[in-house]
Amino acid sequence: MKNKVTSRERSEFIWGWIFILPTMLGLFILNIYPMIDTVRQSFYKTGDFGKGNIFVGLKNYEKVMGDTEVWQALWNTIKYAIVEVPASIVIALLLAVLLNKKLKGREVFRTILFLPMVVAPAAIAMVWKWLYNSNFGLINNLFHIKVNWISDPNIAIFSIAVIGIWSVIGYNMVLFLAGLQEVPHDYYEAASLDGANGWQQLIHITIPLISPTIFFVLVTRIIAAMQVFDLIYMMIDLNNPAWKKTESLVFLFYKYSFEQSKKGYGATVVVVLLAVIMLLTVLQLIGQRKWVHYE
Predict the structure, then answer these.
(1) Domain residues of the chain, as ranges?
(2) pTM, whole model, 2 decimals?
């Protein structure tokens, strides 16, 4: 016979759904529905004055496949991610290991390193534009060089990636610090007795034991880097010679959807980005079985 549901269990079930319902509604309204509607719009051509959209099937996707600007934007986005993601993870991990030790004033250093995460993107862009200025910027004057950091098409995307690294190091560091709290100190004591130096302890103890945290940071940072927009939008003007070499896919979506009112084609660009991100995520989920240790 099936056990009868008690009034307490029924009450807990009802109240449980009441508590999670606002979150589920917010997730559906703000995330799931817009994603479904974006995919739907990718099969349409925007009508006059934003009304009367015309169904065009896969024509938008056919156009994207032959659009050199889309492929250039994808390559720009990948270059940004290739620089920003590994550098931000490695630097943040090393800082986390250092600031996890008993150092005088480590809380102050942790706070300082995390500050870029709470600074408004507009303020970040303003400061870095001054630092990168080719005529009176601090970097050029400090090192007595003449480099067009954000107007040279060959290096502009990498200059922006440096800003991305600087902005996210503190956040990554906090995540790694949380992971380091779960590593038993006994392992390090035993390794020290066996003659292992700091670098060997990092490679053979720290990284394997916090590999789940590293994997989480890697996945989330790749997703975020592939969606880069605000830094490029605020750092690069439309008359900048490096504009085409720094334009990301999300920037391209913004231009098509809101500046040229081609919302159907802009939605197609976003769907392509979604497919790329999903592919990268799946590859990471497959590869993590070989290097992530959950025990």
Answers:
(1) 7-55, 60-291
(2) 0.89
